[in-house]
Amino acid sequence: MALAAVQNLFKERKYPFILASSILLLLFVTILILTAGSQSPLLSFYSASDLQRISSPSPPPPAVAAAAANSSVPAPIDKGPPLDLSLKWKACKGATAVDFIPCLDNFKAIKQLKSRRHMEHRERHCPNPSSRCLPPLPSGYKVPVPWPKSRDMIWYNNVPHPKLVEYKKEQNWVEKSGDYFHFPGGGTQFKDGVANYIEFVEKTLPAIEWGKHIRVILDVGCGVASFGGYLLDKDVITMSLAPKDEHEAQIQFALERGIPATLSVIGTQMLTFPDNAYDLIHCARCRVHWDADGGKPLLELNRILRPGGFFLWSATPVYRNDERDQSVWNAMVALTKSMCWKVVAKAMESSGIGLVIYQKPVSSSCYQEREQTSPPLCEKQDQRHHSWYVPLGGCLNRLPDNSSWPAPWPKRLRIKPLSLSNEVETEQMFYEDSKHWSALVSDVYMEGLGINWSSVRNVMDMNAGYGGFAAALIDMPLWVMNIVPVHVQDSLSVIFDRGLIGTYHDWCESFNTYPRTYDLLHSSFLFKDLPERCEVVDIAVEMDRILRPGGYVLVQDSTEVINKLGPVFRSLHWSVTLHQEQFLVGKKGFWRPGDASIST
Question: Is it the case that residue 328 has pLDDT exceeding 90?
Answer without folding.
Answer: yes
